[in-house]
Amino acid sequence: MSRRGNLDVSPPIHRGMKDRLDKDLFKKSIPVLGVKVTPEKVHNIMKSEPLRSHVLDLPKVTKVLHAPDGQRIIVLRVSSESELSPETQEFLRSESAELVKHTVDLDYDYWSVEEILDAILPEELIAEAPRGYAGCGHIAHINLNKEYLPYKHIIGQLILDKIPTIKTVVNKTENIGNQFRVFPMELLAGEPNYEVTHHEQGCKFVFDFSKVYWNSRLGTEHERLVNLFTPNDVVADVFAGVGPFAIPASKRGSAVLANDLNPESFKYLQRNIEGNKVSRYARAFNEDGRVFIRKSVSLAYDRPFPSYIPPKSQSERKKEAKVQRHARGTNVPKPSSPENRAPPRRRITQYVMNLPDSAITFLDAFRGLLSPENVGKRDLSGVYDKASLPMVHCYCFTKEFEEDKAAADIRQRVEEKLGAPLDEKASFHHVRSVAPNKEMFCVSFRLSPEVVLAS
Ligand SMILES: C[S@@+](CC[C@H](N)C(=O)[O-])C[C@H]1O[C@@H](n2cnc3c(N)ncnc32)[C@H](O)[C@@H]1O
């Protein structure tokens, strides 16, 4: 029960309400006392020591009212005079303040999602009741356990009504997504509009939440990896989704080949590349991951990326404009752009593989990656160097919770697929606990000559 002083301000209980949220039933009138004073006295009396602690302090409820006779009423959190101490009563008399009756009316808009839910759910369901949602643009996404399903539309309507930025509420209906990691979902409340605009790492992502993979909980991991990359890198993102690694990496100057097999992800990936103005450094592909890995070296070699030019500061732009104005009409040669001087980027330096269920099973695609059978007659000498072959960042799940055991389990599965040992510098980063006995890790390692030149 929610109390303010002696007042019970919790919503009325309506257990058993299921299919439809009847907002009209959430009304409560609470009798209280008010102190009637002249407008000039309001401030001093409210702040005075004897009265201060008795003034009503409910969020969203006015504490000073205008009386029809021009006086003001300071609303108190007591319902009878006997709840005021003798000193307070004496103080009010000395100020010629009159005690009057007043009613505080609360309705549906007053209470929070949790307070109303607690008034509706059977008592045995309250402790474990869903207390939050994952937000993605204008969509709130919840994952209800089956005992809460009879209340799903009420829960959806509550979130919709109470959270101003939310326009659509969905429930994930199964835990098993399809090949593209897209989960079936049902609309609980709001508009059936699933195209969202979501921001991460200063980039804007547009995508259809019902047709592509997106997980806002991976934001920190996306950022961690992108921070490892530099403008010297050419990154091949094998399972790119709508671009949460690829777009921020290219915005920071890395060149990126981004691939996803889901045609919907590919469509939004292209749209996000354009929308974030990174087409110079990012290209989208729509291939199976294995095919993409095999082609990646040739893709970067045949159509190298221009070197990175950092955006000019305002003062640099002004200075350049001045030089150009000065040079106009004279024979002063135009300064050559830094792009013309720096070599183009054609060597892949990083592979990102975020498909944790099965990414490890794609690792054999790196065997013979740089072999003539895979790259044809292309001359890779001077491009790839045995000592600095590409890094691979491969996401995976393991049942092992302890870092040592998890690393041993992952190492064994990775080495089996690569057909070669990982070097001792390989690192194993714990990303998050997905479920009991399901830990997500990222293993990062450098490809070895033995693997990439295997026949
Ligand atoms: C777990 S999501 C990761 C997406 C994105 N990188 C992220 O971090 O949010 C895996 C992605 O792999 C794509 N995918 C699944 N199977 C694939 C395959 N065989 N080849 C290429 N992409 C695939 C899915 O469509 C999905 O977008």
TrEMBL record:
Superkingdom, natural source: Eukaryota
Catalytic activity: guanosine(37) in tRNA + S-adenosyl-L-methionine = N(1)-methylguanosine(37) in tRNA + S-adenosyl-L-homocysteine + H(+)
Keywords annotated in UniProt: Cytoplasm, Methyltransferase, Mitochondrion, Nucleus, S-adenosyl-L-methionine, Transferase, tRNA processing
CDD domains: AdoMet_MTases
SUPFAM superfamilies: S-adenosyl-L-methionine-dependent methyltransferases (SSF53335)
Keyword field contains Repeat: no
Cell compartment(s), UniProt: Mitochondrion matrix; Nucleus; Cytoplasm
Compositionally biased intervals (Basic and acidic residues): 314-323
Binding site for S-adenosyl-L-methionine: 222, 260-261, 288-289, 354
Main location: mitochondrion
Xref: PROSITE patterns: SAM_MT_TRM5_TYW2
Classification via InterPro entries: MeTrfase_TRM5/TYW2 (IPR030382), SAM-dependent_MTases_sf (IPR029063), TRM5-TYW2-like_MTfase (IPR056743), TRM5/TYW2-like_N (IPR056744), tRNA_Gua_MeTrfase_euk (IPR025792)
Domain SAM-dependent methyltransferase TRM5/TYW2-type stretches: 133-449
Listed EC numbers: 2.1.1.228
Keyword Metal-binding found: no
Annotated spans, Disordered: 308-346
Protein function: Specifically methylates the N1 position of guanosine-37 in various cytoplasmic and mitochondrial tRNAs. Methylation is not dependent on the nature of the nucleoside 5' of the target nucleoside. This is the first step in the biosynthesis of wybutosine (yW), a modified base adjacent to the anticodon of tRNAs and required for accurate decoding.
HAMAP family cross-referenced by the UniProt entry: TRM5
Family per record: Belongs to the TRM5 / TYW2 family.
Record text on subunit structure and interactions: Monomer.
UniProt name for this protein: tRNA (guanine(37)-N1)-methyltransferase
Organism of derivation: Somion occarium
